[in-house]
């Protein structure tokens, strides 16, 4: 499932028209009909439906939707909310087709004319602006959006809610608040960005007949279940513990043993063959009873916190995870720098390790083996010297720029998780729920990711699969045993067996 900007969507439409001979008005017909077939799952014929139609392609889709639903017997009031001069090209063609089919089309000039219709509507469909939206809503459309949002009607947006840009990094002061959005052809970035995704409500993407083999390849995609089934590492009948990777987890402190303990247990629950936990001895005594299958490496410590370098040959490990519960003291910084330079296998850095990383990013850039960073927006903002709000508003841009600059894989965590490769490719994981908003969830994710990296031939596949397993586990647990309120990180670890058993990889 592709994720596109407004410009990329325009390019797709242009390629479709030029390469396959599809006319713009035929694309509108396809889009409008695809939306109608999708919306029939949401609508019933006893409902009063008001459709708001603008100019441009979104308005053209709206004219097709109105005509198609009327032909199907739905109770529709179609309102054109822009002057006739704004309805051109394919949109004008479909407007005429609607009118020539014998159906009424109301022209809005003052907000008072539509107030009664919106107040009495069961469903309001927004087909006013589409991806051409720039700046803030103005004039009559702003009034229509405000009045629509006040109603108790079920609100549906076509492609994207009016007032919401297709792209990221743009503040929205007012927009149509959809309960459901029928997205056309490809997901728009704004559906996945925190400050704009709230306007979409639930959403679905419909296919409209674009010539997919001719379209420019998108560097952004939503990772889906079919992708996970294809890429999940298979276990052979004659495999042994060495076949599934030898991992090392480094971190822990006397006052934070739970972080590294949860990471270690999640790593083992996710299929790693062998695991060593390196932590201060004062932490190990608390971790060991919880993770009996691991071996342990005591680190030099000072007052329960890691002190200095690691005195072992790290070249024997197939993957290393660093940072969970390590602490932010200066002496921990030496350990992070030491491992960044010494580890010759994939290295995952999370939590306190990320805090210690900022001053040595030049060393990260020099690494020849894969480096994976797993920040939440606050940690990432610290790394790139930006405000958290800046990161939240433009996560695709900043994570891509960072990954390309330093040659790292970035797993930017959040309600929507964005996984970015050093070459700029990006995947989006949509699994999970608010039950994951608990301390320790990130530690569990790091353990799962390390295990997947140890077992997979592709770092990108491993990260995508790991994020999906983490999110799906939360979803399954809150559907059965837990609520989003009481779900704990330790519950996730024990729930992993259900995830792996339920989905036959």
From TrEMBL:
<feature type="binding site">
    <location>
        <position position="159"/>
    </location>
    <ligand>
        <name>(6S)-NADPHX</name>
    </ligand>
</feature>
<feature type="binding site">
    <location>
        <begin position="413"/>
        <end position="417"/>
    </location>
    <ligand>
        <name>AMP</name>
    </ligand>
</feature>
<keyword id="KW-0479">Metal-binding</keyword>
<comment type="similarity">
    <text>In the N-terminal section; belongs to the NnrE/AIBP family.</text>
</comment>
<feature type="binding site">
    <location>
        <position position="58"/>
    </location>
    <ligand>
        <name>K(+)</name>
    </ligand>
</feature>
<dbReference type="InterPro" id="IPR029056">
    <property type="entry name" value="Ribokinase-like"/>
</dbReference>
<keyword id="KW-0630">Potassium</keyword>
<feature type="binding site">
    <location>
        <position position="442"/>
    </location>
    <ligand>
        <name>AMP</name>
    </ligand>
</feature>
<keyword id="KW-0521">NADP</keyword>
<feature type="binding site">
    <location>
        <position position="376"/>
    </location>
    <ligand>
        <name>(6S)-NADPHX</name>
    </ligand>
</feature>
<feature type="binding site">
    <location>
        <position position="325"/>
    </location>
    <ligand>
        <name>(6S)-NADPHX</name>
    </ligand>
</feature>
<keyword id="KW-0547">Nucleotide-binding</keyword>
<feature type="domain" description="YjeF N-terminal">
    <location>
        <begin position="9"/>
        <end position="216"/>
    </location>
</feature>
<keyword id="KW-0520">NAD</keyword>
<dbReference type="InterPro" id="IPR000631">
    <property type="entry name" value="CARKD"/>
</dbReference>
<feature type="binding site">
    <location>
        <position position="126"/>
    </location>
    <ligand>
        <name>K(+)</name>
    </ligand>
</feature>
<feature type="binding site">
    <location>
        <begin position="57"/>
        <end position="61"/>
    </location>
    <ligand>
        <name>(6S)-NADPHX</name>
    </ligand>
</feature>
<feature type="binding site">
    <location>
        <begin position="130"/>
        <end position="136"/>
    </location>
    <ligand>
        <name>(6S)-NADPHX</name>
    </ligand>
</feature>
<comment type="subunit">
    <text>Homotetramer.</text>
</comment>
<feature type="binding site">
    <location>
        <position position="443"/>
    </location>
    <ligand>
        <name>(6S)-NADPHX</name>
    </ligand>
</feature>
<dbReference type="Pfam" id="PF03853">
    <property type="entry name" value="YjeF_N"/>
</dbReference>
<comment type="function">
    <text>Bifunctional enzyme that catalyzes the epimerization of the S- and R-forms of NAD(P)HX and the dehydration of the S-form of NAD(P)HX at the expense of ADP, which is converted to AMP. This allows the repair of both epimers of NAD(P)HX, a damaged form of NAD(P)H that is a result of enzymatic or heat-dependent hydration.</text>
</comment>
<protein>
    <recommendedName>
        <fullName>Bifunctional NAD(P)H-hydrate repair enzyme</fullName>
        <ecNumber>4.2.1.136</ecNumber>
        <ecNumber>5.1.99.6</ecNumber>
    </recommendedName>
</protein>
<dbReference type="Pfam" id="PF01256">
    <property type="entry name" value="Carb_kinase"/>
</dbReference>
<keyword id="KW-0067">ATP-binding</keyword>
<dbReference type="InterPro" id="IPR004443">
    <property type="entry name" value="YjeF_N_dom"/>
</dbReference>
<comment type="similarity">
    <text>Belongs to the NnrD/CARKD family.</text>
</comment>
<dbReference type="InterPro" id="IPR017953">
    <property type="entry name" value="Carbohydrate_kinase_pred_CS"/>
</dbReference>
<keyword id="KW-0413">Isomerase</keyword>
<feature type="binding site">
    <location>
        <position position="162"/>
    </location>
    <ligand>
        <name>K(+)</name>
    </ligand>
</feature>
<keyword id="KW-0511">Multifunctional enzyme</keyword>
<keyword id="KW-0456">Lyase</keyword>
<dbReference type="InterPro" id="IPR036652">
    <property type="entry name" value="YjeF_N_dom_sf"/>
</dbReference>
<dbReference type="InterPro" id="IPR030677">
    <property type="entry name" value="Nnr"/>
</dbReference>
<comment type="function">
    <text>Catalyzes the epimerization of the S- and R-forms of NAD(P)HX, a damaged form of NAD(P)H that is a result of enzymatic or heat-dependent hydration. This is a prerequisite for the S-specific NAD(P)H-hydrate dehydratase to allow the repair of both epimers of NAD(P)HX.</text>
</comment>
<feature type="domain" description="YjeF C-terminal">
    <location>
        <begin position="224"/>
        <end position="503"/>
    </location>
</feature>
């Amino acid at each position: 499932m592709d994720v596109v900007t407004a410009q990329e969507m325009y390019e797709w439409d242009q390629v479709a028209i030029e390469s396959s001979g599809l006319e713009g008005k035929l694309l509108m017909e396809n889009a409008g009909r695809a939306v109608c077939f999708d919306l029939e799952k949401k609508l019933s014929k006893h409902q009063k439906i008001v459709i708001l139609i603008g100019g441009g392609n979104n308005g053209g889709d709206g004219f097709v939707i109105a005509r198609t639903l009327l032909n199907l017997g739905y109770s529709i009031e179609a309102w054109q909310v822009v002057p006739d001069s704004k309805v051109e090209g394919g949109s004008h063609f479909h407007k005429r087709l609607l009118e020539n089919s014998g159906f009424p089309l109301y022209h809005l000039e003052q907000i008072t004319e539509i107030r009664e219709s919106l107040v009495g509507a069961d469903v309001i469909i927004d087909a006013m602006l589409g991806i051409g939206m720039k700046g803030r809503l103005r004039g009559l459309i702003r009034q229509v959006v405000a009045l629509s949002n006040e109603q108790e009607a079920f609100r549906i947006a076509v492609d994207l809610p009016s007032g919401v840009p297709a792209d990221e990094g743009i503040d929205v002061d007012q927009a149509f608040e959809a309960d459901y959005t029928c997205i056309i052809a490809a997901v728009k970035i704004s559906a996945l960005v925190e400050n704009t995704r709230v306007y979409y409500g639930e959403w679905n993407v419909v296919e409209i007949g674009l010539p997919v083999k001719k379209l420019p390849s998108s560097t952004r995609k939503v990772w889906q279940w079919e992708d996970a089934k294809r890429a999940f590492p298979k276990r052979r009948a004659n495999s042994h513990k060495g076949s599934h990777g030898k991992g090392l987890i480094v971190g822990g402190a006397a006052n934070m043993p739970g972080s590294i303990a949860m990471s270690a247990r999640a790593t083992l629950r996710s299929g790693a063959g062998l695991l060593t936990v390196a932590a201060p001895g004062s932490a190990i005594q608390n971790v060991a009873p919880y993770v009996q299958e691991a071996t342990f490496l005591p680190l030099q410590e000072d007052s329960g916190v890691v002190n200095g370098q690691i005195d072992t040959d790290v070249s024997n490990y197939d993957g290393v995870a660093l940072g969970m519960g390590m602490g932010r003291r200066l002496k921990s910084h030496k350990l992070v720098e030491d491992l960044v330079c010494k580890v010759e296998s994939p290295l995952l850095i999370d939590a306190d390790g990320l805090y210690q990383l900022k001053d040595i990013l030049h060393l990260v850039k020099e690494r020849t083996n894969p480096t994976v960073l797993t920040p939440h927006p606050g940690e990432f903002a610290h790394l790139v010297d930006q405000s958290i709000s800046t990161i939240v508003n433009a996560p695709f841009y900043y994570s891509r720029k960072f990954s390309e600059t330093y040659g790292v894989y970035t797993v930017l965590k959040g309600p929507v998780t964005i996984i970015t490769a050093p070459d700029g490719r990006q995947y989006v994981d949509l699994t999970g729920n608010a039950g994951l908003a608990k301390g320790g969830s990130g530690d569990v994710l790091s353990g799962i990711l390390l295990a997947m990296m140890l077992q997979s031939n592709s770092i990108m596949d491993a990260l995508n699969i790991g994020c999906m397993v983490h999110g799906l586990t939360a979803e399954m647990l809150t559907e059965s045993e837990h609520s989003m309120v009481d779900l704990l990180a330790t519950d996730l670890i024990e729930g992993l067996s259900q995830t792996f058993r339920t989905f036959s990889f």
